[in-house]
Predict the 3D structure of the following.
Amino acid sequence: AQTVTQSQPEMSVQEAETVTLSCTYDTSESDYYLFWYKQPPSRQMILVIRQEAYKQQNATENRFSVNFQKAAKSFSLKISDSQLGDAAMYFCAYSQVRGAQKLVFGQGTRLTINP
Amino acid sequence: GAVVSQHPSWVICKSGTSVKIECRSLDFQATTMFWYRQFPKQSLMLMATSNEGSKATYEQGVEKDKFLINHASLTLSTLTVTSAHPEDSSFYICSARKTGGHGYTFGSGTRLTVV
């Protein structure tokens, strides 16, 4: 079974600084998708970024970028120029390309932005 | 963009009664929908995968007779919590995957309180 591990329950960063959230996963599949979701206090799940495993290039969305290391099964999220609105729970997630394609989530990292 | 409407946002019910939660994709067809449960300060735990026109697939440990899932159309899935008890109090979130696509759109969640 696939598993996703986020080893940092909480992280904090100064406003305008850069922070990196860690995620590792375990799978025997060669093709899959990885995601980072943000859950603010409203609890609405918001997609931050998505990475397809067959793509070597790291995904980037404005201030958000990932470091995808397929061999190491690592998928970290870097947030540049942190803003107060970035404060939230961040979940790393995995899904297979084939089959049910259900999302498997990590435990989450609570990110605090210090003004 | 893809929108999923989930209702109600919150509900309080008496122990022993049943509660129905609706998840509706507003602007796309969703062959597959997923139901998650989230306890305070914890991650999303997949309860079941709902496929249009067929029986839902439940995760291990989830009581299918207690959590009834119906996916009668390509835009609507419902979760009914039967004979609710206080331990069923939680935050329930649905997610829909667009037919033929690989993106996930989440509903805004339902906070269930059983008294």
User: Anything to note?
Assistant: The mean pLDDT of chain B is 93. Chain B has no helices and eleven strands.
